[in-house]
């Protein structure tokens, strides 16, 4: 039996799916993005946007945060300027629930935002935590080598086995996006050492095993890897429990309407419990 508040369900009785929006900066014209930002963003967001030196960085921030407010407004049943966003001491954003709960969804709504190189990614879930990360594949190779040195020895061995070149760089990016998504879901960000937890990955795509850090000993998570557009890698981490969401909906573009998303199944959860079961079966 699941304790706590009842899970929000769809009309069919199934848990609502994880919802993800992928929006390129070019999906929202600059003039329109500026108008929306002027009406929707709060004072802190406007101040942050104004501090960017380069127009491209300011545009990225504005599109990402107007996307966030639009999608959350649709999910929460509120209008965009009424959303109150606060941040934890480590910088993770949360939605402040009005007295009495949200018009849609009560007190259950978690989200996470990521952006890189002209693309913005937002994930929303009705229970527990979600973390998302997006990265371009055209990263500078030397920076990827620096990132790889933060992985566990086993992960570094797996990366090195690919030799040099694009295959190796993609392995680094896959691990990096997964680690970022997990640490963001936990609300720890850079405060979580990347060598304190590890992934075992399929050759092409998919997580086959996950060893969580010591402070998440019973952690079971669903991890999804996507390449929604060529050379743009996405990782999604969703905390798993009995009765949780089994599907994910991927929306493309700015969410003006509820156009039909791409639906897919969430992978089976992995974690310490799964690893223990696997070890028992091997004996």
Descriptive overview:
This protein is an alpha+beta fold. The protein is 31% helix and 27% strand. It has 7 helices and 13 strands. The chain has helices spanning 30-40, 43-50, 55-76, 141-148, 153-160, 166-186, 272-282, and strands at residues 18-24, 84-87, 93-96, 110-116, 119-125, 130-136, 198-201, 207-211, 220-229, 232-239, 247-252, 262-265, 270-271. The strands form 4 sheets. The chain has a 5-stranded mixed beta sheet with strand order 4-5-1-11-12, covered by helices on one side. Helix 1 (30-40) crosses helix 3, helix 4 (141-148) crosses helix 6 (166-186) and helix 5 (153-160) packs antiparallel against helix 6. It starts with 17 loop residues before the first strand and ends with a helix.
């Amino acid at each position: 039996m699941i304790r706590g508040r009842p899970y929000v369900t769809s009309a069919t009785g199934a848990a609502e799916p994880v919802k993800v929006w992928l929006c390129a900066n070019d999906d929202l014209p600059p003039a329109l993005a500026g108008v929306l930002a002027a009406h929707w963003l709060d004072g802190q967001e406007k101040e942050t946007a104004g501090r960017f030196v380069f127009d491209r960085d300011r545009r990225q921030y504005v599109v990402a945060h107007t996307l966030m407010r639009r999608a959350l407004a649709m999910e929460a049943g509120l209008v965009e300027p009424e959303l109150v966003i606060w941040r934890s001491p480590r910088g993770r954003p949360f939605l402040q629930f009005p007295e009495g709960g949200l018009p849609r969804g009560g007190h259950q709504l978690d989200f996470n935002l990521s952006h890189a190189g002209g693309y913005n990614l937002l994930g929303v879930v009705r229970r527990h935590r979600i973390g998302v990360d997006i990265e371009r594949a055209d990263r500078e190779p030397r920076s990827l080598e620096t990132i790889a040195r933060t992985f566990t020895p086993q992960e570094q061995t797996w990366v090195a086995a690919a030799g040099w070149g694009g295959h190796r760089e993609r392995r680094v990016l896959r691990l990096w996006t997964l680690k970022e998504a997990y640490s963001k879901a936990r609300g720890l960000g850079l405060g979580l050492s990347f060598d304190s937890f590890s992934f075992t990955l399929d050759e092409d795509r998919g997580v086959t095993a996950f060893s969580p850090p010591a402070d998440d000993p019973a952690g079971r998570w669903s991890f999804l890897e996507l390449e929604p557009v060529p050379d743009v890698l996405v990782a999604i981490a969703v905390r798993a429990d009995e009765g949780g969401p089994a599907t994910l909906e991927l929306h493309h573009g700015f969410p003006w309407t509820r156009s039909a998303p791409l639906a897919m199944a969430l992978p089976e959860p992995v974690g310490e419990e799964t690893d223990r079961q696997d070890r028992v079966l091997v004996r």
